[in-house]
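Support reply, case 0932

Customer input (verbatim):
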Amino acid sequence: MVSLSQTRTERTARLCAEVALFMRDQVLSRVSHDLRSPLNAIHSWAYVLERKIDNADTAAQRALGGIRTGVEQQVQLIETLVDTTRAETRKLRIARAPFEPTVLIPEAADDARIALGDARGVSFEVEDATGAAMLDGDRERIAQALWLMLVFAAETSPQGASVALTAGATATAAQFAVKWQASPRLLTDETLAHVLERFARAQASEQQEAGRYAWVLALCQRVAEAHGGRFEAPSVLGEGEAVTLALNVPLNGA
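Our regenerated output:
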């Protein structure tokens, strides 16, 4: 007979695996984008040089041919290795069905508490103002996003800290926000309990490029986009600063 603790452990492991899968996709997406930009520049400058160099200069023509061939090979590698690997998660499949967010919210907080909150001495305070709102979406995917938001907050919270999960609804959308005082240095403190992978925590502790946020939050973004909503996160986690992660999901899918 499977015990409740074993079931909880298996659920945490599955949630972590989902986080890792979409984090991988996020990394590959950035690699694909960031490699294409310089390759396009190299290709363009090679074309400019081709028009300037004497056709009779065979050594220069061979050099240009080598540049073009190298660019084409790199683009092919991106398309066959990076883009193909991303294919399974590029478009998140969701199973829509009506459900009440007010039922989901305490479950997500409880899952996060069991996964990391208890081990880190971090509590989750829930304020639910969704009322009788019905959300037409993928209940499990939204639960995963909320779990990750809460666990990420716990990963950056000291002993005894409190993380707030607030939820509300308008006539058109449900809004979920996780708020806490961040201590990003704790992400790389190996004396503490952790759930997220080490390299993901290390990357999340660094300042992100403008308009980007930590890889490990990619699942939240993909869940929001799949529902026609949006996810918001800061690109910088300042020590001791108030941080908010926000998930907005339309009540009715398009």
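We compared this against your earlier run and they match. Two observations from our side: Strands lie at 97-99, 123-129, 135-137, 162-169, 173-181, 230-232, 242-250. Residues 4-90 form one domain. Please reopen the case if you see a mismatch on your end.
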